[in-house]
Amino acid sequence: MGDVLREVLQENNMTGRLDELKAAAAWPAIVGDHIASRTLRPYVKNGAMTIRVSDAGLRHELNMNRTSLIREFNRIVGREVITSLRFTN
Questions:
Q1: At 58, which helix (H) or strand (E)?
Q2: Pairing of strands 84-88, 43-45
């Protein structure tokens, strides 16, 4: 059954979108509950992840760690899914 489901997902080009959702769901595990509670859940489209952060200091800190965050998202998913991070207010 699992093989059939994987095949259907691949045939319909849905594996990329599922990997993006998996990366977004990993946000609290990557940054911790405290930071995750101060942000809105990430949105991912075509490899670009957008995260709303109302605190300017936190937004700056996250921007400074953008490269390592992207690396961690992709490590958790198991392939390069996230290509850019954007922090908005």
A1: helix 56-64
A2: unpaired
Torsion of CA 34, 35, 37, 41, to 10 degrees: -150
Instruction: State the amino acid at position 32 in one-letter form.
Output: G
E-only strand ranges, 1-89? 43-45, 48-52, 84-88
Question: For residue 36, which amino acid is it?
Answer: A
Query: What CA–CA distance (Å, rounded) separates 59 from 88?
Result: 8
pTM given for the model: 0.83
- pLDDT digit string (tens) for 28-84? 999 999 999 999 989 999 999 999 999 999 999 999 999 999 999 999 999 999 999
